[in-house]
Amino acid sequence: MLVLDASVLAPVVADSGRDGVRFRDRLRGEVVAGPDLLRVEVVSVLRRHAHTGHLTADQADAAISDLTAFPIMVFPTAPLLRRVWELRQNLTAYDACYVALAEAVDTTFVTADRRLTTAPGLRCAVEVL
User: Fold this and answer.
1) pTM over 0.85
2) Residue 8's CATH number
3) Which of 8, 28, 75, 112 is the most exposed, fewest CB within 10 Å of its CB?
4) Closest CA to 94 of 13, 6, 23
5) pLDDT, tens digit, for every residue of 54-86?
């Protein structure tokens, strides 16, 4: 099992280029998990890309369909909130949700955000794609 953040899942469902292919290849055969905010964060990324013209309306719509169909083991954030609060000095609440989940299920957190690899206090492995 791998815990993903939106920086990985958004290209998986919306990017037909090199990153999307590479990210999909990395996830092939893996069980993917995320906090319940993951899909909403991906929709926010898709909205931004559609608004700026990086995605057409049809591409964004197809990405939403792919996101809806993508198998994700979803975990509620409420049980993670204490750990999220503990990480407040080093991570946003959103990023801390992913880290706290990876710690709770004892797995690797996968992100495209390189700065998360140097955040102090994390008790999980972080893989950057």
Assistant:
1) yes
2) 3.40.50.1010
3) 28
4) 6
5) 999 999 999 999 999 999 999 999 999 999 999
